[in-house]
Amino acid sequence: MTQLPDVHPSGRLTNADLAPVRDRHWAWKDYLFLWMSDVHSVAGYMTVGTFFAMGLPVSSVLFGLLVAIVAVQVLCNLIAVPSLRSGAPFPVIIRSVFGVYGAIIPALVRGIIAIGWYGIQTWLASNAVVLFLLRVMPSLTAYSDVHQHGLLGLSMMGWGAFLLVWSLQLAVFWRGMESIRHFIDWAGPAIYIMMVLLDGILLWKTRGQLSFSVLPRSDLTLGQHLTGLLNVISLTIAFFSPIILNFGDFSRYGVSIEAVRRGNFWGLPINFMAFSALALTTVTLTQPVFGKILIDPVETVTRLDNQAIMLVGILTFVVATIGINISANFVSAAFDFSNIAPASISWKGGGIIASIGAILLTPWNLYARPDLIHLTLDVLGLFIAPVTGILLADYYLVQRRTLDVGALYSTDPAARYWYRGGVNPVAVYALVLAVLIGLANVFMPQLAVFQNFAWFTGFFSGLAFHLLLTRLAPVDGKAGQQAS
User: Fold this and answer.
1) d(CA 12, CA 204)
2) What span, in angstroms and rounded, lies between the C-alpha atoms of 328 and 349?
């Protein structure tokens, strides 16, 4: 059992949700199920599916996925340590880097991105509901047409399904963190059962024939092959980047660092590669069964023309998507917005802000096509990756694994993380510079070759700028102080 520091913070920088957690119940299996919920989703399936449609050899895609997921595992193990040691969530831990007030900047960045993902996942799950209703009640087709009955790019039926899934997630979230843990413990494994069943049906329809030759294949030069492989690695890490950064929100509940690492091992390389193999099998089988490659699992299920299978499949995808949405996006956004004004915004209040923001962002405009999927991942990565690099650089290389938990909640100008008026300008400048580089890579035509490497450039530029600026312009010498 990890020993927590004897700190009982009070004042305007804390509330019951941001204070160090005292009760820890998460064992390694809970982290395995957390990753199952994060991986096993419609968005996860579609993201992996787009890689197999890029024209790369299957072996290259699988290798890229393995390299990426091992990198995610390593990063999560590193991010876990300060929150596990202190019992504090990410928005509080990041105060040690950006200052007790400056931390609002990266927390808001992460919160806004979490809202975007929350909305995207909700919309993808709601699409499953719409497709099922249209299959069983074709008379509703007119209400699914955005041109006849639509608002802000979404049809009337789409709005109804979106708000239904939105409400279900809010209900689970409202019951608290322990209820979320119990929910994801069974939601994550559920989709394995569904995907195995789906593959069994497709294999029966093809009489057991499975050939990867039906997948798109391009004649690539060595350079194009390597670029495609790096794209797979970078985009996969970008897909997981929100939960990498907010993993401390979950590691704080771990019974030990060993439990966290064991859960991450089984939940990431083992679980993710098994899921990728199932996704590859399903995508490949859609070509001989339906005459075209389908990367949307919901469309695959609804094309089977069996209402019982459709109902079970749709319910499974909705439940699995709710699991990832709550764990990866809702929880983090709630902490982030609570951190803006802890005395007046509780964790649940932060969740309400996030859920409303997910509607206002109209997420159906962000993830509708493969090119938009990759662009969305690039943009998300270029903001989150620098914060990740800066946090790891500061905790492991600048502060050298020291953490003054009491100072995380202190507004005393003499406290360790006050810096200048509660803000560490070095960290802020490093973040701004890294984001500008990422924006240039994504949106400047001259740098288009670097577009899909936004996560890499953001992470390493954030890390490098923070270390360089800390050396060139230390803030009152506090970077080198030791925690008491």
Assistant:
1) 62
2) 18
Q: How open is the CA angle 29-347-321, to the nearest 5 degrees? A: 50
CA distance 149 to 146: 5
The CA distance from 433 to 436, in Å, is: 5
Q: Output the DSSP codes for 156-167.
A: HHHHHHHHHHHH
CA–CA gap between residue 37 and residue 326 (Å, rounded): 9
The contacts of residue 34 (CB under 8 Å, 6+ apart) are: 184, 188, 250, 263, 267, 327
99 three-class SS: coil
Provide mean pLDDT across the span 230-255.
Answer: 89
C-alpha distances in Å from residue 87, one per residue of 6, 13, 82, 92, 315: 11, 15, 8, 10, 35
- Supply 23's token pair: 């009760």
Please give the structure tokens belonging to residue 202: 């497709």
Q: At residue 5, does pLDDT exceed 70?
A: no
Polymer length in residues for the chain: 484
Provide the 3-class DSSP secondary structure of residue 151: strand
Q: What is the pTM of this model?
A: 0.85
Cα separation, 110 vs 335, in Å, equals 10
